[in-house]
Design goal:
Blueprint: H1 3-9, H2 16-28, H3 38-51, E1 55-59, H4 65-71, E2 79-84, H5 90-97, E3 106-110, H6 113-119, H7 121-124, E4 128-133, H8 140-147, E5 151-160, H9 167-170, H10 177-194, E6 198-203, E7 209-214
Bound molecules: S-adenosylmethionine.
S-adenosylmethionine binds near residues 35 and 83.
Length: about 220
């Protein structure tokens, strides 16, 4: 048994609706591997439950697996904004969000992630408690710049894929677009460590999850 499987066995299982969504994602989309993995999902759900955020923001919804994990901790009267550019995914998201407790508090935005951040700069300024950054990786540094002013005092950023398919710790880049994304993730990791205004811990789950707060 590998370490990830062992860690999964040592964790409270994901709710049945999430297991159903994971199966539907693999059966009904061509890109199941894009979905947040089970263990990362449990970690972000736990962080959300501990924080009880009033405003959550997710960049990159895909089929809504991470959305439902984050929703588990959304505080009373809270709103979960999630941003996705591909509207072909919306019917699958709706099907599962309608079955989720509190699913009506998910506000979906059909937009480019960075454009959304610029557009919503004023209404969200200083209010966002928890952000899950999981959209277009090549723009992740511009997204960080745009996200910092949106964070509330207790605001927390979660960056998925900070190992970029393992290439960042094995020091071998992928090719083509993937190399550009690896570069962006490498620059992000360097920024998170060198910026003394931020405090970061990278959790060895999935493809690397970096948890960031204001120092
Ligand atoms: C890795 S998947 C997200 C996985 C999801 N967070 C989950 O929990 O399963 C990345 C998603 O970002 C979307 N995406 C890619 N580029 C985007 C952009 N510029 N703006 C918004 N969404 C984007 C993709 O369509 C895809 O659904």
């Amino acid at each position: 048994m590998d370490l990830a499987t062992f860690a999964n066995h040592q964790s409270t299982p994901a709710p049945p609706l999430l297991e159903k969504l994971a199966r539907a994602t693999w059966q009904r989309t061509r890109h199941g591997r894009l979905m947040t993995d089970v263990q990362t999902g449990r970690v972000i759900a736990m962080i959300s439950k501990l924080m009880q955020p009033t405003t959550i923001l997710e960049l990159g919804t895909f089929t809504g697996y991470g959305t439902l994990c984050l929703l588990e901790g959304l505080g009373p009267e809270g709103t979960l904004h999630t941003v996705e550019s591909n509207d072909e995914l919306f019917s699958l998201q709706d099907e599962f969000w309608q079955q989720a407790e509190g699913g009506h508090r998910i506000q979906r935005h059909h937009a480019d992630a960075l454009a959304f951040l610029h557009q919503w700069k004023v209404p969200l300024n200083g209010t966002v408690d928890l952000v899950y950054v999981d959209a277009d990786k090549q723009n992740v540094n511009a997204q960080l710049d745009a996200l910092l002013p949106l964070l509330s005092e207790r605001g927390c950023l979660l960056f998925d894929n900070t190992w970029w398919n393992g290439t960042l710790y094995s020091r071998e880049n992928g090719t083509g677009g993937s190399a550009a994304k690896a570069d962006a993730m490498r620059r992000l990791n360097e920024r998170l460590l060198s910026d003394t205004a931020l405090q970061t811990v990278t959790v060895p789950t999935g493809d690397g999850l970096s948890v960031v707060r204001k120092a």
